[in-house]
């Protein structure tokens, strides 16, 4: 008996930070920005989109669903639907000072529901206009409304920022917003920095925004003079680092502003479990360059981390230069010493560099937008150092009529991309794993992760050393049905590990047993059965029959495949032979067949006669001593008398056409 199992399975798992319910892969794959400009990453490579929304501000978010279908475009003062028309309730309005910073992202655990955040700045408490105090304002978009075009269902929800003590600067938000994935892989942190040099981390989860932030008080321990609102803040894709870019006004000995600005960059180590800043430092060299207003319009134009978080890119001097820092260089002084100019974009207009004109894309490259041009630049290898980053000023030409405005769409730190994905065409629910069948797994990485090692544990200790494996796409065979936990640990360059576990239900194969091989006597039959099977099972015999049983009447190989209701299959086979069974009815008796004939025309023993058999039921073949066939006849008639053949020994083969039974013998021809 031979047992076979015929089923293949590709198992889909979720790895890294995200839980299954938070799966979102293409929510930032459509970028709309500038004046009717757009880029799509849906095909894998960046490609220009048809003309989009006109006159978008430098700060914009372009949000799609997990399949990559555009949902809406958000600015600091309005939200447009996918048709580039004002969404119902999308005129946000309200006082916004020093920019229209915005961040839009899906609410964890609430499909079709999105949050749009805008920090509102307050500069002078002496103003007579009744403006609200500094706050983080948010709006809720429900894409199930208005026939799928969306509607702002909750608006002007204010989270008042903690107040400072400096006259005229009572806790205003000094930066835009960084959205960082929580360590639980599901929730998000919304992070801003205030004029008091404090970091505020607001938690967004399936219940909404927690109004009480986690506050890290001035981790640098140094307070430069007035920080102008509109600074940039970015997070690395792994959520472990933050970078802020500011400039401050210098004052003279009398405390008056002298019109000179001092730019500086700050790097912080972020704990995405607690929301706190562990440590921070100002890159020393960035606080040395005193810039007149004509040299620095609006502050830093762009800030971005490399995909692996090891490099920091800073667009300075209204896009005249883009700097790169090696954050792995060591001390702050060593980081400062690592600064190198990696690009001098050929900008269309040397005007304000404020905005978000450096943005990491889903393809793992960093894109750069100049002002009033029909193209975007790109760093092809942003994890590299210096010129090896390969900056191309015209990496992508936009659709005719589209113009950049020195800003690219903002996104979450990981662009909602899974850092590690184990995927296939099947899933546990519709294509179960079956005992005794190899389960093929495969994994792929976000462009933000470079793997150095894969470690699999299949949760099957009984398999001994086969319970563990390495490599990107291993297979494992479970011999016993049950529930197993598969664990994958991916070690990334730099040492960080991403881990996931997933339960796998391995279902039993059918028990198929046709029994031992069968020996039939001539005229006998045998009913073959695979044994009791659960209701809903299907059968397939070797002759195409789908019945639960099959009657064997002739010799041959018989097999059946049984598929259980859960989709697992097993096969068994047996061999049926026929034999001479003495004393059995209808069993041919070959004992009376002659072994000599004498065809000498004496009317005695002239022909080879099948004595004791019905000759017409048998086919006959006769061969000479050299193996050459000399006679053949279907439905023999007892007529062969060796005509034309010499004397000697001849061999014959009898075959019963109905039963398949065969008999071999010999005879002598003597005259």
TrEMBL record:
Coiled coil region boundaries: none
InterPro entries documented for this protein: Ig-like_fold, PKD/Chitinase_dom, PKD_dom, PKD_dom_sf
Q: Which Pfam families match?
A: CHU_C, PKD_4
- The keyword Ligase belongs to this UniProt entry's keyword annotation: no
Sorted alphabetically, the keyword list is: Signal
Signal peptide limits:
1-24
Per its record, how is this protein called by name? Gliding motility-associated C-terminal domain-containing protein
């Amino acid at each position: 008996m031979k047992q076979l199992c015929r089923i293949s399975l590709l198992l889909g798992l979720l790895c890294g930070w995200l839980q299954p319910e938070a799966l979102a892969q293409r929510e930032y794959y459509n970028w709309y920005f500038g004046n009717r400009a757009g880029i799509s990453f849906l095909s894998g490579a960046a490609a220009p989109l048809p003309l989009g929304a006109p006159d978008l501000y430098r700060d914009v978010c372009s949000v799609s669903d997990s399949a990559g279908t555009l949902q809406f475009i958000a600015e600091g003062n309005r939200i447009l639907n996918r048709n580039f028309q004002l969404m119902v309730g999308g005129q946000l309005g309200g006082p916004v000072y020093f920019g229209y910073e915005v961040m839009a992202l899906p609410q964890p655990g609430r499909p079709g529901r999105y949050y749009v955040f805008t920090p509102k700045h307050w500069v002078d408490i002496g103003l007579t206009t009744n403006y609200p105090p500094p706050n983080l304002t948010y709006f809720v978009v429900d894409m199930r409304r208005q026939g799928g075009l969306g509607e702002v269902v909750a608006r002007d929800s204010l989270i008042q920022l903690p107040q400072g003590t400096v006259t005229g600067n009572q806790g205003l938000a000094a930066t835009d917003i960084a959205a960082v994935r929580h360590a639980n892989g599901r929730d998000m942190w919304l992070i801003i920095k205030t004029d008091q040099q404090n970091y505020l981390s607001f938690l967004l989860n399936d219940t909404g925004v927690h109004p009480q932030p986690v506050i890290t008080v001035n981790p640098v321990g140094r307070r430069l003079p007035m920080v102008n609102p509109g600074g940039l803040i970015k997070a690395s894709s792994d959520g472990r680092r933050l970078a802020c870019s500011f400039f401050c006004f210098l004052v003279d000995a009398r405390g008056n502003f002298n019109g000179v600005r001092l730019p500086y960059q700050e790097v912080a180590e972020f704990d995405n479990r607690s929301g706190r800043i562990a440590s921070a430092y100002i890159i020393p060299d960035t606080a040395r360059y005193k810039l007149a207003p004509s040299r620095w319009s609006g502050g830093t134009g762009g800030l971005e981390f490399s995909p692996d978080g090891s490099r920091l890119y800073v667009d300075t001097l209204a896009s005249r230069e883009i700097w790169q820092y090696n954050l792995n260089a060591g001390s702050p002084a060593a980081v400062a010493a690592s600064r190198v100019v990696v690009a001098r974009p050929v900008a269309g207009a040397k005007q304000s560099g404020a905005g978000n004109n450096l943005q990491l894309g889903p393809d793992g490259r960093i894109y750069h937008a100049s002002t009033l041009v029909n193209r975007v630049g790109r760093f092809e290898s942003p994890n590299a150092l210096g010129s090896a980053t390969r900056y191309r000023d015209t990496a992508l030409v936009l659709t005719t009529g589209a113009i950049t405005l020195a800003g690219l769409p903002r996104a979450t730190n990981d662009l909602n991309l899974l850092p590690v994905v184990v995927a296939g065409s099947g899933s546990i629910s519709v294509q179960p794993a079956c005992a005794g069948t190899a389960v093929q797994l495969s994994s792929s990485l976000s462009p933000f992760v470079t793997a150095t090692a894969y470690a699999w544990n299949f949760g099957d200790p009984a398999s001994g050393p086969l319970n563990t494996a390495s490599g990107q796409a291993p297979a494992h065979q479970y011999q016993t049905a049950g529930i197993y936990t598969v664990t994958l640990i991916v070690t990334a360059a730099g040492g960080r590990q991403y881990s996931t576990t997933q339960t796998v239900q391995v279902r039993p194969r059918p028990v198929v047993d046709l029994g031992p091989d069968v020996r039939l006597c001539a005229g006998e039959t045998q009913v073959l059965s695979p044994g009791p099977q659960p209701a809903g099972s299907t059968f397939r015999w070797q002759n195409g029959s789908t019945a639960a049983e099959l009657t064997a009447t002739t010799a041959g190989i018989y097999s059946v495949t049984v598929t259980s209701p859960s989709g697992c299959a097993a096969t068994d086979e047996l061999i049926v032979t026929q034999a001479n069974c003495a004393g059995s009815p209808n069993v041919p008796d070959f004992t009376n067949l002659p072994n000599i004939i004498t065809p000498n025309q004496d009317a005695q023993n002239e022909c080879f006669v099948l004595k004791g058999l019905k000759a017409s039921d048998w086919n006959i073949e006769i061969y000479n001593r050299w193996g050459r066939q000399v006679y053949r006849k279907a439905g023999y008639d007892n007529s062969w008398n060796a005509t034309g053949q010499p004397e000697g020994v001849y061999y014959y083969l009898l075959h019963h056409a109905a039963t398949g039974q065969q008999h071999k013998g010999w005879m002598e021809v003597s005259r």
